[in-house]
Amino acid sequence: MPKPKPKDRVHITDLVLRDAHQSLLATRMRTEDMLPIADKLNRAGYWSLEMWGGATFDSMMRFLNEDPWERVRKLKAAMPDTRMQMLLRGQNVVGYRNYADDVVREFVKLSTQAGIDVFRVFDALNDPRNMEASIEAVKENRQWVEATICYTKSPVHDVQTFLRFAGKLAEMGAQSFCIKDMAGLLDPNDSYELVRALKSEYPDVLVHMHCHYTSGMASMAYLKAVEAGADILDCAISSMSMGTSHPPTEAMVAALAGTDRETGMDIGLLKEISEYFRGVRKRYSSYESAFTAVDPAVLLWQIPGGMISNLSSQLKEQGALGRMDEVLAEVPRVRKELGYPPLVTPSSQIVGTQATLNVLMGARYKMIPKETAAYVRGLYGKPPGPIDPEVQRLCIGDETPITTRPADSLEPELPKRRAELEKLGMRSTDEDLVSYALFPQVALEFFDRRDRKERPRAELAALAAAVADLLGVQEEVARARVCAPPVAASAWAVAARKDLTTGRADSWRY
Fold it and tell me: Which residues pair with 119 in a beta bridge?
């Protein structure tokens, strides 16, 4: 992969293939809806395309019946001239807990082989110890290391705090810094100050901006960051932008046109890309949350858009959606008591779930999930600030939290996982092994669907006719869906009936 060099020109990374649909459409976009526009994306002149990592790995196996590794290969083949970028959760990889170092190393190696060029590595607590193994693995595989600063506001976070953290990342080999503003909290003035400090202290390290539009300030923060010397901006093509997504690509290209930092990108080509995704988005409308619009109230409770969707889902399942305001008010209290962690996966889930339970149980910390207790024990890393002593007592009693690197206490996982697959009599590739190590139950269910023998043509034809009749679609459309994934007829019938009763017209697409 050619090594990019800092230039006056601002570069754009588009997030339409990952974070945009994760923020707006519950991570449900399928590979088949990405490939038809791949040639134009490849010609657009992006610095990179973020198209993997985050929640995509889990969602593809769990909901879409797609092999995550195949998506990388297909998109890389379709866009050979564009860097493929992924979001890597440090020691959490693409999951929700710390995994052993052997899982981290093997994941990075296989991802590189599949076609990932840029690894954006982050840790939810900005604990560099949780990023060491990932960054070393990326360097060993000769790929681009983008080390991430999770941006947040609190009494224990300021520009100097982030600058000290950046220094550790630079020592570890960061080729670019990502300022990851997952809740849209970064205001224009702080954006300028932080970028200017980073560029002054580390002039040879690129600065890559990642801001969600939730508060409505992201475009202003980007322009001030460009003034301060930022090199790359994360955007989403306009039809998949704004709200809890990101600033629109075309708007940022137009805003910089004619300046000494212009992108050089073709607005006409970008318009064609936007029109394509405008049509694609309609097919996933049933997955859009009611909480994806711009809402400056995020500045008060600091909750990322994806976390809002999760909270609304949890409350809806409990018949308590009307108590959302109580939960939103409780989140900052829990966050303070847990030492002001930035709210991003998995800390956002930990804080959000605890806040929800505090509200629904009628007493604070009456129920404490194992993840909250593990966080207080130090198993997720070092909290940015001190944990409230009474909350610590409620969570772990008199136990003393660990102070070592959390992953140091983990035994290698892959030999054990390989033995489990062999005991089950399942054929598996190295990629299957890592998928299983990350998500055992989800992966086994996916393998079963993927590897099931093809059903007889007569059965498929009858099933297609039944699905077409049930959903009121053309039989050739139903046949295209039914014949692709090997799913039992009963599952199709249940899914189809659910669609008719819930109005989720797209959920039957495995």
Answer: 86, 145
Main-chain phi, psi angles of 412, to 5 degrees: -55, 140
Q: Give the whole-angstrom CA distance, residue 212 versus residue 144.
A: 23
What's residue 488's pLDDT? 38
Q: What is the pTM of this model?
A: 0.86
**Six-digit token string for 353:** 């779930």
Among 186-200, 282-296, 300-314, 495-509, which range has the highest average pLDDT?
186-200
Is the backbone of residue 429 left (phi > 0), alpha (psi -120 to 50) or beta? Answer: beta
CA distances 119 to 6, 141, 175, 204, Å, are 18, 11, 11, 18
Runs of H (alpha helix) within 265-346: 267-283, 298-301, 305-317, 324-337
The string of DSSP letters for 86-136 reads EEE-GGGTTSSS---HHHHHHHHHHHHHHT--EEEE--TT--GGGTHHHHH
Question: Tokens 């379709």 map to which residue?
Answer: 78
* 452 phi/psi in degrees, rounded to 5: -60, 140
* Sign of the C-alpha dihedral computed for residues 85, 86, 87 and 90 taken in this order: negative
Nearest to 115 by CA among 427, 431, 417: 431
Average pLDDT for 382-391 = 97
